[in-house]
Amino acid sequence: MTTLHDIRAIAFDVDGVLTDGSVWWGPNGEEWKHFHFSDIMGVSLAQRAGLEIALISGEDSPLVSRYAEKMKIAHVHKGIRDKAAALHQFSIDTAIPLQEICFMGDDINDLPAMDIAGFSAAPSNANQLVLAGVDFCCAHSGGNGAVRELIDALLAARNLKPLDVFRRSR
After folding, report:
1. Using an 8 Å Cβ cutoff, are 127 and 135 in contact?
2. Disulfide-capable partner of 46 in 36, 51, 91, 126 (CB 3.0 to 4.6 Å)?
3. Separation CA 77–CA 164 (nearest Å)
4. Number of compact structural domains in the chain
5. What CATH number is associated with residue 122?
6. Burial of 121 (C-beta count, 10 Å sphere; 0-12/13-18/19+)
7. Angle at 143 between CA 155 and CA 31, to 5 degrees
8. β-sheet bridge partners, residue 19
9. Could you tell me where the DSSP H helices lie in 32-135?
10. Residues 6+ apart with CB under 8 A from 18
């Protein structure tokens, strides 16, 4: 069985994991999503620790691209209906076996990817079917520190302190 210590890459669903799942629409059709700075720091720490990061989203939102650009995430899959296939492609692209990849999702459309990943995680407010089968259930909800919580646990499994990792150049 894969443990947190074995993980070399993390693929995240976006809505409900990196965001709180809310979408705000402006009167002129603008769309806004809420990203938590604690999660942003968590992703940065994961990258500094040498973990590969991917975003796999069912939405084809420019905000996913904006987040990826800001965070320098090269592996971005948007408008994806088959998240397991996207996760498999991420594995091929990075030459990291699926058993060394964690997938973090929150709803039933994430289950196929969670099933093939070596390790699965979910925020506390994920769908009950998702929570029933994950390897790591966060105490925090999506968009409110769950990503950081997972990454802190991954770092701890490697005996890495977040401040020491932060001080590393990226």
Report:
1. no
2. 51
3. 31
4. 1
5. 3.40.50.1000
6. buried
7. 135
8. 35
9. 37-48, 62-71, 83-94, 111-116, 128-131
10. 12, 35, 39, 55, 67, 142, 143, 147
Whole-structure pTM over 0.85, yes or no? Answer: yes
- Cβ proximity of 102 and 121 under 8 Å: yes
CA 126 to chain centroid, in Å, comes to 13
> For the purposes of burial, counting CB atoms within 10 Å of the CB of 25, is it exposed (0-12), middle (13-18) or buried (19 or more)?
exposed
Give the model confidence (pLDDT) of 40-59 as tens digits: 999 999 999 999 999 999 99
Hey, which residues does 120 pair with through a beta bridge?
103
User: How far is residue 112's CA from residue 105's CA, in Å, rounded to a whole number?
Assistant: 10
Per DSSP, the three-state class of 77 is strand
The letter for the amino acid at 91 is: S
Q: CA 169 to CA 91: how far, in whole Å?
A: 25
3-state helix, strand, coil in the chain (%, to 5): 40, 15, 40
* HSE of 27, CA atoms in CB hemisphere, 13 A: 0
Ranges of residues in the chain with a pLDDT under 70 are 169-170
Residue 20's domain comprises 4-166
Within 10 A of 41 (CB to CB), how many other CB atoms are there?
Answer: 16
Note the pLDDT of residue 169: 63
**In this structure, are strands 31-32 and 24-25 parallel, antiparallel, or unpaired?**
antiparallel
